[in-house]
Write a structure and sequence with these properties.
This protein is an alpha/beta fold. Helix content is 49%, strand content 9%. It has 28 helices and 16 strands.
Length: 698
């Protein structure tokens, strides 16, 4: 390197140092005072709570920031002292180790001098560990929406591109571009994100197009939807005529609003394609909103509409209750029922009832029905809400009585027994002397109740019927009350949330039926945990068995994922065979659920197996999209299932059992063909005579 080049480089280093580091005169060191140390004199503090160090990417980002803007926040240091208490000239970095490492990285790359002076804040008053801990946990990362605002300002005001912004902040250009994409999102959605109504992934999904009106339209019906659902709705260009939304609004309404249906003359297009997606969604939203208004008029605190059921919403639920009648009304209703019974008995055999009798029967029915309906308590109406959801089949599902966490009424826990029988003394053993009402020690209480637990276990083991009741009670507490602690049985039962594995799962017929059955049982469950036992005991045998079956079924998990569970999955196959599971009732090989998500080879193999080899050969020349469109109707018609959804046929009996049956059949044939017995004897299968009297005795 020439002398002039070396001088230029040193000058550049001096400029960088002068720009980014403040040089001041030394003096007396006091806590909280700024002081300048050469970079080479800064050491890592043993009191730094971050023992795992910093990730290289973090140091790179800080180095880029320092190189662009200098050190904005000076490190906090504590002067190093020798055994005699005097300063060694070095400083231990209590807070700002990442900045020190970033400076060392810049010095290593010869972008700053190794001896560059660094402005530091000296603190010997506060505890070093406390300072380090506060430095690391007292920070809140910037929200992506705030990053977007800052990046957008720099892009527009400074004219910087994604690469320039990324270089100055130590992030990749891809991250900057991702944040800048949020400029395509409507301000109302940014506001919803800041208020935590949307996740970042959901917000990014809305940025798939820059049409703010469309974004807001989709937001109205996809507030809690998966990001993939939002993205698909934003990029959707046509709607099939058999789509659930079309079933809901009616094709006539779409056409009356000016919509157009496009038909494919050369393939089964399932009734055609609706070309105006925005119009379809607007009509759906308007019709759902009208239903929401009707339901809200019932007096609910809130009412929401959804295109997919918001499973995992974290809401609790209240249920309607049977009316409580006054004594006078109860007597009146009993008299009406008696009168109705008398009239029915008197006129039961008459085909054409007199007008006055028919009118009286109708009046009694209406009178009894008027106040017999279950109803929500006024207090529950005032704090709960309703969900209006468009189901998989285009039918609206209305679920009432959901309570948001902030509206849940917390009941105080029951106080410990006043007599103190469960209170334990802190001492390990009882004193020989003491009052009769002195509490027992914790050790003795545990020992006595262990004896009782053993006895109770044996008693329950001897009563299978009661054991089933206990099992049903424990599972019901977990399934409906989320209170497994209210049972003395230590039974853990969990239910995997199946919609996590696929968006279409929660709209499948089987899942919808399970949710409906859950609601039916939940309506009957007592609100208090301690009342569930009496409820379960009070059920008849068949109802209790049905409840147990449902609770057990909720724990079943046959999902194949990366977690393995080979033995459990093998048992699931056995269970499918035992129940003769037929998935054709719950699943169809549509484009959305299967065909568009597998290879062209998979689709052709399905056609060859389910329809015919000739049909598969005829379709083999089509492109993937056209192939799926052409294959779907036939595969749905024949109810084709992929291997993962098929139920294995029952395994035939073992060869030994088959041989045994063959042997028995041969013996029976031989016995039937033997000549009649002589002298009171009966011919046996093994040709050994047996006395008739002996055979009869057996």
């Amino acid at each position: 390197m020439s002398a002039s080049s070396q001088a230029a480089k040193e000058t550049a280093q001096d400029v960088v140092a002068a720009k980014f580091f403040i040089i001041t005169d030394g003096g007396a060191v006091r806590s909280g005072e700024e002081r300048v140390y050469p970079l080479s004199k800064l050491k890592a503090s043993p009191d730094n709570v971050r023992k795992g160090g910093h990730k290289p990417a973090v140091i790179e980002a800080r180095a880029a920031s320092i190189l662009a803007k200098g050190i904005i926040q000076p490190p906090v240091v504590r002067p190093e002292r020798g055994e005699d208490g005097s300063e060694t000239g070095y400083a231990l970095v209590t807070a700002g180790e990442g900045r020190r490492l970033a400076l060392r990285l810049l010095a290593k790359r010869k972008l700053i001098p190794r001896g560059a002076l660094v402005r530091c804040l000296v603190d010997e008053t506060n505890d070093a560990v406390e300072i380090s801990l506060d430095e690391n946990i007292g920070r809140e990362p910037l929200a992506p929406a705030d990053e977007f605002g800052a990046f957008k300002d720099l892009s527009e005001r400074q004219g910087w591109g994604a690469e320039a912004i990324g270089a100055r902040f130590g992030v990749t250009a891809a991250v900057v571009r991702e944040r800048l994409r949020l400029s395509a999102v409507a301000p109302a959605l940014i506001k919803a994100y800041r208020e935590e109504q949307l996740t970042l992934d959901q917000l990014m999904a809305f940025a798939a197009t820059e049409d703010h009106a469309r974004q807001l339209q989709v937001f109205e019906t996809h507030r809690d939807a998966h990001p993939s659902s939002i993205r698909r709705a934003m990029t959707e260009t046509t709607v099939m005529a058999d789509d659930r939304r079309v079933h809901f609004i009616g094709l006539e309404a779409y056409l009356a609003a000016g919509g157009v249906v496009v038909r494919d003359l050369f393939a089964d297009d399932r009734g055609g394609y609706l070309s105006n997606v925005a119009l379809v969604d607007r009509l759906v939203d308007e019709k759902l909103s009208a239903i929401v208004d009707e339901v809200a008029a019932e007096g609910w605190k809130w009412c929401e509409k959804h295109l997919q059921y918001p499973h995992g919403h974290g809401l609790t639920r209240v249920w309607p209750k049977a009316p409580e009648f006054t004594a006078e009304r109860a007597t009146q209703r009993e008299a009406l029922r008696a009168e109705y019974g008398d009239l029915s008995e008197t006129w039961g055999g008459v085909e054409d009832l007199p007008a006055e009798v028919e009118a009286r029967l109708t009046a009694i029915e209406e009178d009894l029905a008027r106040d017999a309906r279950e109803a929500y308590a006024p207090d529950d109406l005032a704090r709960a809400g309703a969900l209006v959801v468009l189901s998989y089949d285009g039918v609206v599902r209305i679920d009432r009585g959901f309570v948001r966490p902030e509206d849940v009424i917390l009941t105080p826990k029951e106080e410990d027994d006043e007599d103190g029988e469960d209170r334990a003394a802190p001492a390990a053993e009882e004193e020989a002397d003491g009052p009769a009402n002195a509490p027992l020690s914790a050790k003795l209480i545990a020992e006595l109740t262990a004896h009782r637990t053993a006895g109770l276990r044996l008693a329950l083991a001897n009563d299978p019927d009661l054991a089933l009741v206990c099992l049903t009670h424990a599972l019901a507490l977990t399934t409906f009350q989320h209170a497994p602690w209210a049972s003395c049985l230590d039974i853990k039962a969990s239910s995997a949330f199946l919609p996590d594995h696929g968006e279409g799962v929660k709209t499948s017929p089987a899942y919808e039926a399970l949710e409906s059955r859950y609601d039916q049982w939940a309506r009957q469950m007592p609100e208090k945990d301690d009342e569930v036992w009496a409820f379960v005991v009070g059920l008849d045998t068949d109802s209790r068995a049905s409840l147990l079956a449902f609770c057990v079924a909720r724990t079943l998990d046959a999902v194949r994922s990366f977690s393995g569970r080979r033995a459990g999955l093998s048992h699931a196959e056995t269970l499918a065979t035992a129940t003769a599971l037929d998935m054709t009732a719950f699943w169809k090989p549509t484009a959305e659920r299967y065909l568009s998500r597998v290879t062209k080879g998979h689709v052709l193999a399905a056609v060859a197996e389910g329809v015919s080899a000739d049909t598969a050969q005829r379709l083999s020349g089509l492109k993937k999209g056209d192939l799926v469109t052409a294959a779907e109707p036939d595969l749905v018609r024949v109810s084709w299932l992929p291997p993962l959804l098929r139920t294995k046929a029952p395994v035939r009996e073992s060869q030994d059992e088959a041989d045994d049956q063959a042997e028995v059949a041969a013996v029976e044939t031989a016995v039937a063909s033997d000549p009649p017995a002589q002298n009171g004897e009966v011919a046996s299968p093994d040709d050994h005579p047996v006395q008739a009297d002996s055979l009869a005795a057996e």
